[in-house]
Amino acid sequence: MESIAVWQGATLFGILTWIMVSSYLNVTKKVRSLLQPWVAHYVITGTPTILKIQNHQHRFLDALFSGLSCVVSVPFYTAFLPLLFWSGHVKLARQMTLLMAFCDYLGNCIKDTVSAPRPNCPPVRRVTTTKDEEENALENGLPSSHTLNTVCLSGYLLYYLLSYTKWEYASLELAGFLFVCLFVGLIAVGRIYLGMHSLIDIIGGLGIGFGILYFWLAVHEYIDNFLVSGQNVTSFWATLSFLLLFAYPTPELPTPSFEYHTAFTGVALGIVAGVQQTYYQFHHEAVPRIFTPQLSIPAFLGRILVGIPTILIVKFCSKALAKWILPIVSNTLGIPIRSTSYIPMLNGSVTGKKSNEIKQSTYVQKLFFFSHHDSFDVDTGIRFFQYTGLAWSVVDLVPSLFAHLRL
């Protein structure tokens, strides 16, 4: 027990120390000054390559690559992961959720540290067929998040299938490997074809993605064992999640990357808290899985019909509750707050002269060195609370409903 407390405390203290030291030394700007010109050079010199690929413009290719981008987007994974939990593949689901949160955090940290531009449009043609893609276009370039996430999640899924389904034929393993390579290749080419990324962004996404996947395959069993049977899991993860909101670089210009990080950090916390609470009821390895007599297709469809509306209701209620509670708590503690979107009456009420300030800017300074004009953007807390509640309902509340309804 003492050893557990020591490594948990050391981890949290190390992150806190890094936050303070990196803020004091202004590490983000120094790293950016070294890397941004180099990456921007390759973005500019890579424009002819993008134009050559876009010379093959066709409506079919527009639809194909736009559709593939939606399939590997964060909203897709947010919708897909609950179905994976309810299908009975609970270990795969929780591992992919935590891996997704890790990829999202690390990838967005690198994006906003380097703050590299996307390809200039024009001359590059940028295809944004969905609102999600329009928001993605507001992010920085290097690395390509779609490429990075696809490498990690499809690679881990293939590893899971090879490890736990015990395919008997080498030809099936080769087919699975080739399919993953083809899928990753299509995503990478598609990001260039759609004008969203340069070649350097894709190379960065591939390199970082393979690095994260290699690391995750080395530690995933330790993480899962800690998650289901460790000590102080929920309290440790809650503190870790809180610190990660501050251990995030300030981008050169406003981007939605911090919002994505906040949401998926909340998702990871909700999953961890829910699984830790109900592992022996709903998340052990002997739970019924889809395509077995214990969980038939009709029963799984029933789970979807019950589960999806429930988690959407919880998401709405969590957001409403956070919008009510967080301003009260902040005012009680004397913490100056503002809101950029969720609470109109707080929009610019504290720091009006910085109404267009980046949400995550100077968070470290605000945390440790309050002044009379500094304030927190309460939207960050609301978003975090909202997605924590959503994820908790996926692994705790909804499975409880399934048990009562015998689904």
Automatic annotation (TrEMBL):
The chain crosses the membrane at residues 6-27, 60-86, 146-162, 174-193, 199-219, 226-248, 295-314. InterPro entries: PAP2/HPO, PAP2/HPO_sf. It comes from the Eukaryota. The keyword DNA damage does not apply. It holds the Pfam family PAP2. One of its GO terms (molecular function) is sphingosine-1-phosphate phosphatase activity. It is found in: Endoplasmic reticulum membrane. Residues 93-217 form the Phosphatidic acid phosphatase type 2/haloperoxidase domain. GO terms for cellular component: endoplasmic reticulum membrane. The keyword Hydrolase applies. It is a multi-pass membrane protein. SUPFAM superfamilies: Acid phosphatase/Vanadium-dependent haloperoxidase. Keywords: Endoplasmic reticulum, Hydrolase, Membrane, Transmembrane, Transmembrane helix. Belongs to the type 2 lipid phosphate phosphatase family. This is Phosphatidic acid phosphatase type 2/haloperoxidase domain-containing protein. It comes from Rubroshorea leprosula. The lineage of its organism: Eukaryota, Viridiplantae, Streptophyta, Embryophyta, Tracheophyta.
